Amino acid sequence: MHLPLALFALSLLLARSLAQNLTDAQIASVRANLEQTASQAWELGAEAEALTELDYPTLAVFSSWSLPPPTSLNSSYNASEVISIATKVVQAKPANSEPLVANDGAVGDPPSIGVAVLLANYTGAQGGNFSAAATGQLDYLLYTAPRSSAGAISHRVEQVQLWSDFVYMTPPFIAYYGAVTQNQTLLATAYQQISLYRDALRDSSGLWRHIVLGSGTDDGHWATGNGWASAGCLRVAMTIYYSAFGGQMQNEYNDLVGWAQEIVNAVWAYQQSNGTLLNYVDDPTSFADSASTALLASVSFRLATLPTSASYSTIPQAEKARQLVYGPALGSDGWLSPVVDPYNYPNLGSQSPESEAFVLLLQAAYRDWGILGAPGQSGSAPPAAALSLLPLLQDLLPLLQMLSLTQDSDP
Ligand SMILES: *[C@@H]1O[C@H](CO)[C@@H](O)[C@H](O)[C@H]1NC(C)=O
Ligand SMILES: *[C@@H]1O[C@H](CO)[C@@H](O)[C@H](O)[C@H]1NC(C)=O
Ligand SMILES: *[C@@H]1O[C@H](CO)[C@@H](O)[C@H](O)[C@H]1NC(C)=O
Ligand SMILES: *[C@@H]1O[C@H](CO)[C@@H](O)[C@H](O)[C@H]1NC(C)=O
Ligand SMILES: *[C@@H]1O[C@H](CO)[C@@H](O)[C@H](O)[C@H]1NC(C)=O
Ligand SMILES: *[C@@H]1O[C@H](CO)[C@@H](O)[C@H](O)[C@H]1NC(C)=O
Ligand SMILES: CC(=O)N[C@H]1CO[C@H](CO)[C@@H](O)[C@@H]1O
């Protein structure tokens, strides 16, 4: 057999034996829970990203096919759930609101929907002026939103305040806007914003505090916030990498990957015996939280799938976390538990929409890692023979993803 074809077949076998552990029915019920309950701006943004990575992986920034986006989508690969989020938001937006969601209170959350809005624009979706909506959102961030003295865009409208959550919600939009309009300044702005947030939030342990500046701060190392920050770093890194400026911005790419790695290294040091993280990572009095556990596991698997500067050191912890998330933490109704109340983050909640997005982000990352042959299962770099095949598998990844979508995935 032709070598690439042989590899293709081999890696599909691996993907089938490793990647699909949740059943299709479980994935469907998690997706349904998410679609029925996501309503806040950041929940819609996380939902759009999770559905893109899971169902339309070649449109997500982890794929070499993602940039530039296709100018049209066909009826069997139409990103309809993602485009529909963008359409509803743009249609509900008053004409005089620059932010995608009017009067949100958060500067940083509405832009999380902006990647889907730009995707709708470039793929020729009907149903709204997606281009004008995306530009309004960008202009609000760049020219109107309050900033810290160092230049960090505030996460809040009413006061200057920096939240770790921001890193997932806003820089990925600014970076994607830069990539699709071939504007390197915007890619640099996304990088700088994360750098400023890291300067303000990171402690010497490598863990990030949750909220600083203004009134109502939270100095604790909120686990979900560390997940948002590390996952946001990787999305911006990959947007830079596959943009027209990837070659010129290798330092920025490497910094962002390193910052994500620094967070997962710090976080997993506090993993509990059943694989969970605590809601405040290093506070032993804090409750167990399966939501952040899922999100941070997705980041560890993504780190092991990167086309350059991949790392494998936290795969064993991520694998332990995944077995908890796919096993005892996932109820027969598709809800994850126990989870933090996302509207009242020091407290235990019951049903958290964002946690359902985290399960899907984990499944997408775990699938892609499986397609690449599950590199680094031992926590150290794969053997030289496997490493030498990785670049080829990386090139084939979008094809393999498309193939895996059409496979019956039930064991
Ligand atoms: C639809 O688009 C996808 C992604 O480009 C492609 O893999 C697939 O073959 C297309 N399907 C049809 C029916 O054209
Ligand atoms: C989009 O794709 C879904 C299935 O993937 C299909 O059910 C739906 O009819 C499609 N919509 C359009 C407008 O083609
Ligand atoms: C929206 O898409 C059109 C056509 O592809 C493009 O000319 C325009 O610049 C896009 N808008 C934004 C904000 O990127
Ligand atoms: C979208 O809005 C922009 C700015 O207001 C305008 O120039 C453009 O013509 C609009 N596009 C469509 C398709 O309505
Ligand atoms: C890049 O985007 C910024 C902000 O919208 C804009 O001021 C600048 O003119 C753009 N640069 C290029 C080369 O288009
Ligand atoms: C994991 O263990 C903790 C106790 O350390 C417990 O509170 C939590 O419920 C467990 N998680 C799951 C999903 O069973
Ligand atoms: C649905 C399913 O098959 N879940 C299994 C995934 O794998 C773990 C451990 O490998 C099992 O504990 C789950 O039951």
Automatic annotation (TrEMBL):
Pfam families: Glyco_hydro_88 (PF07470). One of its GO terms (molecular function) is hydrolase activity, acting on glycosyl bonds. Coiled coil: none annotated. Residues 1-19 form the signal peptide. One of its GO terms (biological process) is carbohydrate metabolic process. Keywords: Glycosidase, Hydrolase, Signal. Gene3D superfamilies: 1.50.10.10. It comes from the Eukaryota. The keyword Signal applies. This is Six-hairpin glycosidase.
